[in-house]
UniProtKB/TrEMBL annotation:
Record field: catalytic activity: 2-(N(omega)-L-arginino)succinate = fumarate + L-arginine
Pathway this chain belongs to: Amino-acid biosynthesis; L-arginine biosynthesis; L-arginine from L-ornithine and carbamoyl phosphate: step 3/3
Annotated gene: argH1
Protein name according to UniProt: Argininosuccinate lyase
InterPro entries per record: Arg_succ_lyase_C, Argininosuccinate_lyase, Fumarase/histidase_N, Fumarate_lyase_CS, Fumarate_lyase_fam, Fumarate_lyase_N, L-Aspartase-like
Length: 466
């Protein structure tokens, strides 16, 4: 990156009487970070050049020179040979200046009928569309990972929790399929967000449109956009799509942080429900016995920065008058960091989840200890004709007795149970077992292993359609 003391304003120096201050040049430049969109900038410029030629603003020769020059520039950038200059402010002017260096005056014609304002809006949309497509694949991979673990664990019994207190037995597969549902909504939200990304602002020029006979439908089609935007002022100032994306990313990170929290707890010695393979953990520099669940912890922590970016972008756009303002240059770093954070976090979870091993004996034991079939006993009493509220009371007393004597409901004798309700018969033990309890919740969305397997089949056929 070159950074001289006096800069030359070579792209817009016409009306200036002194060069811009060197610090101001650095302060206002965005090339350090927006060079990430170089590929999309070139893609957009090639489409713009083709369109200009098709409406007669450029000759076919000029068009071909531009395409040739830009293609070479893309190569230079890919090979790491492109000399980015802070004096040229941003990715757009760096590439344009290099084009002019290579092909001469024709390079200076590329910017006909456009402005950096509609150019940058186009580049961000192209960039984000590419990233969203990749993220959709990562979410799919994550969902496949969840499914493969859920399939193994469809019959594994664990305590289900409310308030982190043992509530009712569930299957581990059912718990995992809850994660799957969250990921499914994330996928759908991202698909929905993509629709509003995929609209072409190019043609809005600086803010009011252009006097050239441009064909925006053609440019939209060349770039794979659904259609051109319908208002030039809105086109150059709209960043809703970036906010929506970051909001979708925030919800995804919120989900990952919840799974992370569960993994961290379950991997602890106190729960000991799961084993996280060593490759997803690290040790302690002082305590030799430690194996820390760093990956889920870090993802949980990274959620905060994505929320921060959402708030940053909302605040960036707050009270901004139409149309483009330089403020908007501040959209990129939060957006890029959101993309990077989300990619890393999804990748880590998609790799890690299918590698989780359950400690099913510990899960089973925890479910057995926590009076988790108390509701089943109450439901049993209801089937014997007791009103639910009264049944609740009876079972509450039985649990109180269990707490005092250290016995789970299934460990009490029939005689003991009958002291709480004479209608209790020998068949009560069918409902007091953990297996009976989960198997009985056999309806759409229930925890019965049969239902979990059905949910997995449904999910698999959904994924096969993607
Ligand atoms: N680097 C600028 C940005 O990211 C490009 C648009 C500049 N437009 C302008 N009128 N200064 O927003």
């Amino acid at each position: 990156m070159t950074d001289t003391n006096k800069t030359t304003n070579q792209q817009w120096g016409g009306r200036f009487s002194e060069p811009v201050d060197a610090f101001v040049a650095r302060f206002t430049a965005s090339v350090e970070f927006d060079q990430r969109m170089a590929k999309q900038d070139i893609q957009g410029s090639i489409a713009h050049g083709k369109m200009l030629a098709s409406v007669g603003v450029l000759t076919e020769e000029e068009r071909d020179q531009i395409i040739q020059g830009l293609t070479e520039i893309e190569d230079e950038i890919q090979r790491g040979e492109f000399a980015w200059s802070v004096d040229l402010e941003d990715v757009h002017m760096n590439i344009e200046a290099r084009l002019t260096q290579k092909i001469g005056i024709t390079g200076k014609k590329l910017h006909t009928g456009r402005s950096r304002n509609d150019q940058v809006a186009t580049d961000i949309r192209l960039y984000l569309r590419d990233e969203v497509d990749f993220l959709l694949e990562e979410i799919t991979r994550l969902q496949q990972g969840i499914l493969s673990l859920a399939e193994k664990e469809a019959n594994t019994i664990m305590p289900g929790f409310t308030h982190l207190q043992t509530a009712q037995p569930v299957t581990f597969g059912h718990h995992l399929m809850a994660w799957y549902e969250m990921a499914q909504r994330d996928y759908e939200r991202l698909v929905d967000c993509r629709k509003r990304i995929n609209i072409l602002p190019l043609g809005a020029a600086a803010l009011a449109g252009t006097t050239y006979p441009i064909d925006r439908n053609m440019t939209a089609e060349l770039l794979g956009f659904e259609r051109p935007t319908y208002n030039s002022l809105d086109s150059v100032s709209d960043r809703d799509f970036a906010i929506e994306f970051t909001s979708t990313a925030s919800i995804i990170m919120m989900h990952l942080s919840r799974w992370a929290e569960e993994m961290v707890m379950w991997a602890s010695a106190q729960f000991n429900f799961i084993f996280l393979p060593d490759r997803f953990c690290t040790g302690s520099s002082i305590m030799p016995q430690k194996k820390n669940p760093d990956v889920p912890e870090l993802v949980r922590g990274k959620t905060g920065r994505v929320y921060g970016h959402l708030m940053g972008l909302l605040t960036l756009m707050k009270s901004q008058c139409l149309a483009y303002n330089k403020d908007n240059q501040e959209d990129k770093e939060p957006l890029f960091d959101t993309v990077d954070t989300l990619k890393g976090s999804l990748r880590a979870f998609a790799d890690m989840i299918p590698a989780i091993e359950s400690r099913s004996e510990n899960m089973y034991e925890a479910a057995r200890r926590g009076f988790s079939t108390a509701t089943d006993l109450a439901d049993y009493l209801v089937r014997q004709g007791v009103a639910f509220r009264d049944a609740h009371e009876v079972v509450g007393k039985a649990v109180g007795y269990g707490v005092k004597t250290g016995k789970d409901l299934s460990e009490m004798t029939l005689e003991e149970l009958q002291t709480f309700g004479s209608m209790i018969k020998d068949d009560v033990f069918d409902v007091l077992t953990l297996e009976g309890s989960v198997a009985a919740r056999d309806h759409v969305g229930g925890t019965a292993p049969a239902q979990v397997l059905k949910a997995i089949e449904r999910a698999k056929s959904d994924l096969a359609l993607r």
